[in-house]
Amino acid sequence: MKQTTPLSAEKSLEEVLKEEERKLFLAKMFEEMTIEELQKLNSRVVSTLKQKRATAGLEIALKLEVGQVVEIKKEGWEGIPVTITAIKRTRASVKTPNGDYNVPFSMIKIEHKSKGVKKLENELSNILNDLAKEDGFFDK
């Protein structure tokens, strides 16, 4: 049985109809494609997915630090803080109450700010407080 997109407050009827129309167009287009064309399309889709996943992983990796407390996005692990012990190319090693694990970046949820970010925020706050104390600094 085909599932349809339910109407919600977020999507108007016009948006839902436009999306369904696009899906039907794509389905018809795929039916008319040759095997070779479908294979080329598939390889492009796979390479695009790999690139997007790598980019997303890199974005997460740049936000991580050893000693940072994060959470794991996996059923049964929600809300359990774990500590990063090492950062590798595609994974982070974490210390949990149940032992140490290697976790892909895509499964890491950054809830808590890293020590470096907290330190920068504190320094910025101190600078702004000092500037506010200077007579008439913000009046200029």
Question: What does the model show?
Answer:
- There is one protein chain.
- This protein is an alpha+beta fold.
- It has two domains: 14-59; 63-133, SH3 type barrels (Roll).
- The protein is built from three helices and five strands, in the order H-H-E-E-E-E-E-H.
- Strands 4-3-2-1-5 form a five-stranded antiparallel sheet, covered by helices on one side.
- The termini are far apart.
Number of self-contained structural domains: 2
Outline the low-pLDDT stretches: none
| CATH topology tier name of the largest domain | SH3 type barrels
| Protein structure class | alpha+beta
Helix content range: 40-55%
The helix/strand series, from N terminus to C terminus, equals: HHEEEEEH
| Oligomeric state of the chains present here | single chain
Q: Please tally the β strands and state the result.
A: 5
Strand order of the largest sheet: 4-3-2-1-5
Overall geometry: extended
Number of helices: 3
Largest sheet descriptor? 5 strands, antiparallel
Give the name of the CATH architecture of the largest domain: Roll
In percent terms, what proportion of residues is strand?
Answer: 15-25%
Q: What is the gyration radius calculated from CA atoms?
A: 24 Å
Q: At the first level of CATH, what is the class of the largest domain?
A: Mainly Beta
Give a topology summary.
Elements (H helix, E strand, L loop, with lengths): L12 H20 L2 H28 L6 E4 L9 E6 L3 E6 L2 E6 L3 E2 L5 H19 L7
Antiparallel strand pairs: 1-2, 1-5, 2-3, 3-4
